[in-house]
Write a structure and sequence with these properties.
With 350 residues, the protein is an alpha/beta fold. The protein folds into two domains: 59 residues, Nicotinate-nucleotide-dimethylbenzimidazole phosphoribosyltransferase (CobT), small domain (5,6-Dimethylbenzimidazole Phosphoribosyltransferase, Chain: A, domain 1, Orthogonal Bundle), CATH 1.10.1610; 270 residues, Nicotinate-nucleotide-dimethylbenzimidazole phosphoribosyltransferase (CobT), large domain (Rossmann fold), CATH 3.40.50.10210. Helices cover 48% and strands 9% of the residues. It is built from 14 helices and six strands. The chain has a six-stranded parallel β-sheet, sandwiched between helices. Helix 11 links the parallel strand 5 and strand 6. Helix 2 packs across helix 13 and helix 6 packs parallel to helix 11. The radius of gyration is 20 Å and the shape is globular. The termini are far apart.
Length: 350
C-alpha cells in the first residue's frame, strides 16, 4: 500500500460553484455564449474557493521511461528514440519545448528509467528506477518496490510545485512502447477487447497493428492472476512514466493544484488515478481528444469533455500546453469582464 494515497482531497465547494455561476450570468454577454470557457472558469472558482480564479503560476513536468514491451516490435520507432527525445527536450527542439517557451512556463523532464545512460543536461533530472521496465508479455513490468518508487518520485515533484504555489500543472510523457502499455492497461481495467482500443499509435503499419493486438491479448492472458486491482494492473502492465502520471494526478488534487490532462497516455493515467482516488476527478481538466483510437473510448469511460479536437497524436504534454492559454483566458474573462449593471448595458428582455 502507498500510504500517502489515503490523504484527503478538497471537494468542489458548492457555495463557490453557485456564486461563480451567478457571476457568469451577470457578465456582459448572453448566458452560455462562451461555451466551455464558462464551465472551466466556474469549476476553477469552486476548486480554488474564490471568485477570481487564477492559473498564471503553472509548470510542465514530463516523465520519460523505456518499456520492455518495445522489444516485441510493437512500435514504429526504435527504443533509442526515448533518449534522443529527452536530449531534444533539453536542447529546446521539441514541440513541448517550443510551447513552454511561448507561454513562459518552466519545463522539467524526469528520467525515470531509460535504457541508455544520459549525462547531466539542462531541464533534465535523473531519477532512474531501472533501465526500463520488464516486458509484460513474459512477466510483470514492475516490482512492487519499483512502482512505489515511481509514485513517490511523482509525489516529490508535485509537492515541490505546490510549495512554490503552483496553481496548474501540465504533465507529459515520453516512452517508446507506451501506447502498447496504455492500451493493455485500459483493456485489463475495463475488460475491453484490444481491437476496441489499439490504433496505429505513432504510425505503425497494418501488419504491426495486428501483431500489437495479438501481443496485448497474450500478455493479458499471461498476467491474468495479477490483474485484480488498479494498482496491480498498473504494476503489471504499466510503465514508470504512466505510474508517475497516475500518482501526479492524485497528488495534484491533494495539494489543490489543477492538472491539465494531455492525450491518450495521460488520459489512461488519469483513468487509473480516478479508479484509485475518485475524489481527484474534479481537479482534472481534459485538454483535447487525440487521433488515437483508444482516446475517445477512455474519455467516454471517464465521462470527460475534452476542450479541443485537433487530431493530435504527439504526446509530450503538447495538447495540454496548447490549451493552457484558453484556460487562462477563461479565468481572465471571469475576473475582468464587466457586469451588465457596471457597464450600463441592458440585460435580455424576459
Amino acid at each position: 500500500m502507498i500510504d500517502w494515497i489515503a490523504e484527503p482531497v478538497n471537494p468542489v465547494d458548492k457555495r463557490f460553484l453557485v456564486q461563480a455561476q451567478e457571476k457568469q450570468n451577470q457578465l456582459t454577454k448572453p448566458q452560455g455564449s462562451l461555451g466551455e470557457l464558462e464551465n472551466v472558469a466556474v469549476i476553477i472558482s469552486s476548486l480554488q474557493q474564490t471568485q477570481t480564479p487564477n492559473v498564471d503560476r503553472a509548470e510542465i513536468i514530463i516523465y520519460a521511461a523505456d518499456h520492455g514491451i518495445a522489444k516485441e516490435d510493437v512500435s514504429a520507432f526504435p527504443q533509442a528514440v526515448t533518449a534522443e527525445m529527452v536530449k531534444n527536450f533539453s536542447a529546446g527542439g521539441a514541440a513541448i519545448s517550443v510551447l513552454s517557451k511561448q507561454h513562459d512556463l518552466s519545463l522539467q523532464v524526469i528520467n525515470l528509467g531509460l535504457i541508455i545512460d544520459l549525462p547531466k543536461m539542462k531541464h533534465v533530472e535523473h531519477q532512474v528506477i531501472s533501465q526500463g521496465t520488464k516486458s509484460f508479455l513474459q512477466q510483470q513490468a514492475m516490482s512492487e518496490k519499483q512502482i512505489k518508487q515511481a509514485f513517490y518520485t511523482a509525489k516529490k515533484k508535485v509537492d515541490r510545485a505546490g510549495d512554490n504555489h503552483c496553481q496548474l500543472l501540465i504533465f507529459g510523457e515520453m516512452g517508446i512502447g507506451n501506447t502498447s502499455s496504455a492500451s493493455a492497461l485500459v483493456c485489463a481495467l475495463e475488460l475491453i477487447e484490444p481491437e476496441v482500443i489499439i490504433g496505429l499509435g505513432t504510425g505503425i503499419n497494418p501488419s504491426t497493428l495486428e501483431h500489437k493486438i495479438q501481443v496485448i491479448k497474450e500478455a493479458l492472458n499471461t498476467n491474468k492472476q495479477h490483474l485484480n486491482s488498479p494498482l496491480g494492473i498498473l504494476q503489471t502492465l504499466g510503465g514508470y512514466e504512466i505510474a508517475a502520471l497516475t500518482a501526479s494526478y492524485i497528488r495534484s488534487a491533494q495539494r489543490g493544484i489543477i492538472a491539465l490532462v494531455d492525450g491518450f497516455i495521460c488520459s489512461v493515467a488519469a483513468l487509473f488515478a480516478i479508479r484509485i482516488k475518485p475524489e481527484c476527478k474534479p481537479w482534472l481538466i481534459f485538454s483535447h481528444q487525440s487521433a488515437e483510437l483508444g482516446h475517445k473510448k477512455v474519455l467516454e469511460i471517464i465521462s470527460a469533455r475534452p476542450l479541443l479536437q485537433f487530431k493530435l497524436r504527439l504526446g509530450e504534454g503538447s495538447g495540454a500546453a496548447l490549451v493552457y492559454p484558453l484556460i487562462r483566458s477563461a479565468c481572465l474573462l471571469q475576473n475582468e469582464m464587466a457586469s451588465f449593471s457596471r457597464a450600463g448595458v441592458s440585460e435580455k428582455l424576459s
